[in-house]
Amino acid sequence: MASTESRKPFPQPAAGYTQSFWRTDLDPLDSHRSTPDLPKETDILIIGGGYAGASAAYHLFPEDQQGTPPKVALLEARELCSGATGRNGGHLRPDLYSMTATYTQRYGIEAAVEVVRFEISHMKELENLVRKENIECDLTFTRSYDIYLDADQLATAKSFYNFLVDQGLDFIDDVKYLSKEDAQGTTKVRDAQGGFSFSAGHLWPYKLIAGLLRIAVSRGLNLQTNTMVTEIGQTRTPEGLWPVTTDRGIIYARKIILATNAFTSALASEYSKAIVPCKGLCTHIEAAPGAPYQQLPETYAIRLGSGAFIYQISRKDGSIIVGGAQYTYKDAQEQWHNNPDDGTLIKNVENYFDGYMQRTFFGWEDSQATVTHKWTGGMQNILDLSVLADSLPHIGGIPGKPGQFIAAGFNGHGMPVVFLCGKAIAQMAQQSVSFQETGLPKLFETSAARLDPVYDDTLG
Ligand SMILES: Cc1cc2nc3c(=O)[nH]c(=O)nc-3n(C[C@H](O)[C@H](O)[C@H](O)COP(=O)(O)OP(=O)(O)OC[C@H]3O[C@@H](n4cnc5c(N)ncnc54)[C@H](O)[C@@H]3O)c2cc1C
Question: DSSP H helical segments within 254-331, as ranges?
Fold first, then answer.
């Protein structure tokens, strides 16, 4: 077995570690420990305090629970929601036709449409959740513009869109095609060749996660931040408990939920080919006080060409969260591929978003917009992004490890996917519900076969 030293999940946050825009307004739970010491034993241990771990925890403590609350602990290596969820674009944008084309080609239209419907269901699900639980997380519903700057790429997308229309699928009614004229006039994207618009949303992801964990903690969750799991033992004790080593001692767990995203293979090395940590970039941009700029209430994906993608939301205060541009550093693989270090910059893209709004949108020419939040020092924050080899998350029982479950590998597209996966993994761990009974898209099921993926989407 590898020593603890050689299995470090990730470097400790460096001194002077810069937080993302979303972590500028911290919750009282940010460094919370429900008890001074780790519990010695727990029924269910969640590892990871991001969206997946928080959703699992929330669902393990339902409002109508009877009797003694379950014994559940959640260990987070750093502060609450300090991984990808606390560093993302805040874009809640179901994918209606983009990866759907790839999934259709690989697995058939039925399986692909199952994923689309699942993603769309998150819109209503999160709206209901936020209303019911009164979670203030700036959840906003709007339209999203998917804009193509490359005419050939647009033509390919349009042809798959036409195919979906021909299938008579109801969800495609929401997707409106935009001609070049529409796209430049309505969306204000300077070099737009055309695109699509459809329903989407955005939110403050950190506040959603803090809200979910606040509820779970109030109902009995033992939350332990700043607690790194260094190893999960290979065998169970005679009582059926997995020994889990942390930097604060050992905790024994009957069931384990791995919600560790990009860092999964440090604890479950069998996922090293399936969940490949990659870095992405995200920034916060603001116009100068009093300077004129065009309000952009919709969200955006701007496609500059094959593999060149930028995602963007506008906050109510007019500021912009924008990230992506992987094409600028794709060839410098050592800087981002199979690299979970979120404490260093990707040099090739460091200054990319300076002047981005001015050069991309009509109406921002005189905005004097600047990148105001630089996540990891320098000009931008570089973020870990768990990219799936086959682009699909791994949900379910870990092959060959009874009592261990995984909900990880949500790619750069977790917001319309993770919440219900967290619910499903909670049901599997707590009530022995089978994967099929959860109603998750069948493509999401983790399996021994998927550990050696047929496709490698990480390098495009
Ligand atoms: C730059 C960027 C932009 C993105 N933009 C969007 C977007 O706009 N829309 C969208 O839908 N998706 C986006 N995503 C993807 C989305 O953020 C993720 O899919 C989602 O947040 C994954 O949630 P998670 O809980 O699985 O992972 P995380 O939030 O990363 O949580 C995993 C947690 O596990 C902890 N952990 C790991 N190992 C250990 C260990 N050994 N011990 C204890 N704790 C451990 C980590 O510290 C981390 O907090 C983006 C991602 C990135 C990186």
Answer: 264-267
Distance 19 CA to ligand 1 centre (A): 14
CA Rg value for the chain? 22
Cα angle for residues 409, 332, 373 (degrees, 5° grid): 70
Pocket test for ligand 1, best of 146, 415, 420, 446 (most atoms within 8 A of CB): 415
pLDDT in tens, 291-303: 999 999 999 999 9
Pocket of ligand 1 (CB under 6 A): 9, 47-53, 75-78, 82-85, 87-91, 228-229, 259-261, 263, 266-267, 280, 282, 311, 323, 383-385, 408, 410-416, 418
Residues with Cβ within 8 Å of residue 5, at least 6 apart in sequence? none
- Nearest-atom number in ligand 1 for the CA of 264 is 38
Residue 283, token pair as written in the block: 């920034």
Spatial CA neighbour of 450 closest among 278, 273, 277, 276: 273
Give per-residue pLDDT as tens, 199-243.
Answer: 999 999 999 999 999 999 999 999 999 999 999 999 999 999 999
Cα 291 to averaged position of ligand 1 atoms, centre (Å):
35
Q: Within 10 Å of residue 231's Cβ, how many Cβ atoms?
A: 18
Domain 141-202+277-385 listed as CATH 3.30.9.10: yes
Atom of ligand 1 nearest to the CA of 227: 43
What number does CATH give the domain 5-88+206-274+389-451?
A: 3.50.50.60
pLDDT band at 7 (very low <50, low <70, confident <90, very high): very low
Extents of the domains making up the chain? 5-88+206-274+389-451, 141-202+277-385
DSSP string, 67-125: SSPP-EEEE-SSSTT-SGGGGS--EE---SSHHHHHHHHHH-HHHHHHHHHHHHHHHHH
> Considering only CA atoms, which residue is closest to atom 15 of ligand 1?
412
Q: What is the pLDDT of residue 328?
A: 83
Query: What is the arithmetic mean of pLDDT over 121-145?
Result: 98
CA of 392 to the centre of ligand 1 (A): 15
Nearest-CA residue for atom 52 of ligand 1:
88
Q: Where are the alpha helices (DSSP H) in 167-224?
A: 180-187, 205-218
